[in-house]
Design a protein that fits this description.
Strands 3-4-27-26-25 form a 5-stranded antiparallel beta sheet, with no helix packed on it. It is built from 1 helix and 27 strands. The relative contact order is 0.16. The chain is mainly beta and 345 residues long.
């Protein structure tokens, strides 16, 4: 996630400011969906052969179109849902499709319901940053105020899951992904905060940590990243994606039974703030709008967002096919062709 200081938010290049709450709807045109027309020549003297060739070609074209289909739903437009926050971050969704996101400078967690109603879920909220809804309906929140990781029940009861590592305070838990079995991976970059009583790192580097499903074991599982930020994984719990925003790279790892990571490979030469994945394996990276990569790491689309910084994304809505986008002082959404792969993101 992006650095926040003194009520003003910085993405590394911009001061994004702060403001009051205002809600309205507005529509902006996204990039036009791609089309893949089929053309074929037939012979006048071989109608039967041509018909057979046409049928075979149509089958092949259908498979090709399915794989090349735009992620954007036909006719969908980017919609501005709410504005006037200081800085929006950390979207995640519950089982009903309601979206929870943070406004970190104002120390609050907001809820956007499937009915389109905005409410404050919790304030104060531990300066929550990245979040993920676990299978039990608890909000797992990177509580940046005291470099901690929280679990927040629906009735707002807080349990501190992590507060340090080997007796040293963490850099600042930033984003989290929870596997179906309850295992968690947390990115821990260092961004100076004005509300801290320290301005230096206690740890030697900025890495990814693993928390066992029972909450008893916290382990550092990377050692060579510069500044990990966005994180997501596949719903089978076998693959983890980590965006190293400091190196401008996103990596793919094989998750081991003990939570450790193996087989690090470059997924794409682009870093990210927050990120998510859909049911087709497409990865959505954030920063200057939302950039979409297919499961092979090839960039396929870009969703323009007219904001200084796009921080994070999550699927939500009743059918889990709406992408919610937290960008600077606003919350956006756009309808997609595919569902999110994970129920909480």
């Amino acid at each position: 996630m992006s650095a926040v200081s003194g009520g003003f938010t910085f993405d590394g290049n911009h001061c994004l400011g702060r403001g009051g709450l205002a809600t309205r709807r507005d529509r902006l045109d996204p990039a036009a969906p791609r089309r893949y027309p089929l053309t074929m020549n037939t012979s006048t003297y071989a109608v039967a052969i041509a018909a057979g060739a046409l049928a075979g070609s149509l089958v092949g074209a259908s498979a090709q179109d399915a794989s090349a289909q735009s992620v954007i739903a036909p006719g969908a437009k980017l919609e501005r849902l709410s504005s006037g926050f200081s800085f929006t971050e950390g979207p995640t969704c519950d089982a009903s499709g309601n979206i929870f996101f943070t406004d970190q400078p104002n120390d609050r967690i907001m809820e956007w319901s499937v009915a389109g109603v905005l409410t404050t879920f919790m304030q104060p909220a531990g300066r929550a940053n990245g979040m993920y809804m676990d299978a039990k309906g608890n909000l797992i929140a990177c509580a940046d105020e005291k470099n901690a990781l929280w679990s927040i029940t629906p009735d707002k009861k807080v349990t501190v899951l992590i507060k340090d590592y080997q007796g040293k305070y963490l850099n600042g838990p930033n984003d989290v992904w929870v596997a179906p079995n309850g295992q968690m991976w947390i990115t821990d970059p260092f961004y100076k905060r004005t509300w801290w009583d320290h301005q230096t790192m206690a740890l030697e580097s900025e890495q990814v940590f693993y928390l066992s499903a029972d909450g008893k074991t916290l382990t550092q599982v990377t050692s060579d990243l510069k500044k990990p930020n966005g994180i997501t994984g596949t719903p089978d719990g076998k693959t983890l994606f980590v965006a190293d925003i400091g190196a401008d790279r996103t990596y793919r790892y094989a998750i081991q039974a003990d939570g450790s990571l193996a087989d690090k490979t470059l997924f794409c030469a682009k870093g990210s703030d927050g990120m998510t994945i859909d049911e087709q394996g497409n990865i959505y990276l954030c920063g200057r709008g939302v950039t979409v990569f297919d499961k092979t790491g090839k960039q396929t689309e870009h969703i323009d967002v007219a904001e200084p910084w796009t921080a994070n994304v999550s699927f939500g809505g009743r059918d889990h096919k709406t992408l919610f986008i937290t960008a600077s002082k606003r919350l956006y959404s756009i309808r997609l062709n595919f569902k999110g792969a994970n129920p909480g993101k």
